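Operator note (shift B, R.M.): manual run for NAD(P)H-dependent oxidoreductase requested after the automated queue skipped it. Running by hand, logging everything below so the morning shift can see what happened. Input copied straight from the record, untouched. If output looks odd, do not overwrite the archive copy; leave it for review.
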Amino acid sequence: MTRILILDGHPAKDTFCQALGDAYAHSAWNNGHEVRVRHLSGMAFNPDFGQSTFSGTRPWEPDLQALWDDIVWCEHFVVVHPLWWGGLPAKLKGVFDRILLPGMAFRYVSGKPLPEKLLAGRTAEVLVTSDTPGWYFRWIYGSGARKQTEKQILDFCGLKPRGYHMFAPVRGSSGSDREKMLSRAGQLGRRAA
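Run finished. Output pasted below as returned.
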């Protein structure tokens, strides 16, 4: 049994991202994993880091503290989000800006170019919806959002990437196409961690 945290990183309610996260969660839960789900749309916090240094950062709002507690609790962290303007929605990026702080998620070590990864021992998986076809995202855009999310956010803090899954194109997809996408998310949940 694995402790799994799913963050529905879409800033709106009742989205296809939420449906994908739910499909993943139900399959993981049905296969004996312990699952918690957080919805970005229901979180109240200021996403603006708002300063130039890490010293004296503002206290976390209750929703950020609850999310952090779940990240510490989990063994596998799943982020589901839409691809907007080639990257993460601003509010989701704001979550990472606010909670992935030195001394908590990573620690700078004197004389070393890269920090100690304080969230090591956990894995992470990303499910992304997009209107851009997956091949175009990879070959034309160079998978910039994937590099940022996997390398510069998750792995930087020690969350070992286990998969980056595109669900695309969503725009123009049929009901049958979406059912296949939901089934795929369920399959990912069944084999989670």
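Quick read of the result: Residues 3-190 form a domain with the Rossmann fold fold (CATH 3.40.50.360). The chain has six helices and seven strands.
Leaving this for review. - R.M.
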